[in-house]
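REQUEST ID: PR-0412
SUBMITTED BY: lab tech R.K.
PRIORITY: routine
TASK: structure prediction, single protein chain
INPUT:
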Amino acid sequence: MTRPLDGLKVLEIGQAYAGPLAGMILADMGADVIKVEKPDGGDDARQWGPPFVGDDSAMFHANNRGKRSVALDIKDEAAVARLKELARDADILIQNLRPGVVEPLGLGPDALLVLNPRLIYCSIWAFGYTGPMRLAPGFDPLLQAYGAVMTLTGRPEDPPTFCAPAINDAATGMWCVIGALAALQQRHVTGRGCVIDTSLFETAVHWVSGALHGYWLSGNVPRRHGTASPALVPYQAFETADRPIVVAAGNDRLFVKFAEAIGCPHWQDDPRFRDGRRRAANRPALVALIEPLLRVRPREHWLKVFGDVGVPCSPINDIAELAQSEQLAAMDLQRTLPGSDMQVVGLPISFDRRRPQPQGDSPALGAHTGEGFGRRR
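STATUS: complete
OUTPUT:
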């Protein structure tokens, strides 16, 4: 398979999650990603386990596959000079070091764009490149808290709740890649690189944009609805006789089908439930009618009944069920790292219906420090 980013040289000065994830996406798509790590211990994520595969965490292996590792102490002048040489002919640089670190070392965007005007310099911040919190550090839970994601997650009677996956880290890494690829296209026209900035804060705000829009319009602070949508009904998890399911009747046509499938076609004529706006206003009444009906039959019964008439529904899988699902196998999402027997999730994108394969296992700390770094093709 021809990889779309073959011949691209990427310098990653990052650790933890968002920066390395961005580098991994580019590596899986064919870029030569050179990862710069501190000699003493390397990327902190090497120790973010269990589980571990060898000396490093499974998370590190997954997010740093297919890269080369160079160990450099960026507090040392000689190491900084080496890093600048690596940047001189790089296409993309990704850094998510602690805010305020790179500029005093001469590794900020202004300095490196003078050295390499074609460089696309990507910085991943915690709270952004400007503002009173510019230099504040941040990890995903802090941004779920500051960015109000926690106040929208969970049931109204529960305390604010984290979303389990590190959604801000992951999405910020993706925004970084989107920006870098757009800048590459711009470089084809201008011949020059540029500075890309994104942050966990901006990502967190983007996640809650719908709630912010509502607040700006109404002044009302959104409340938590558990598994339910604040605007659509029924659009949530329900218990059945054995295991829960999610039903998502996202418009009036689907509600009519849902009402008929559950044995209550008269609901479509009830003035409380006639359209989406009225159903949202009368949510407690409608949910109270639905819940006892669904509890009469088991999950598989309702999945078939709703599936047969086209009402969107799903079982609530645990990780083992997801891993064993026919759909995951059909989409060929499971990958084995070359040089390892570790299973990882492949990129969620295909080119000509073919999913990119990881280029290799993750590198040992400093394994490529002594190498030359001409372009790898």
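NOTES: The longest helix spans residues 167-190.
REVIEWED BY: pending
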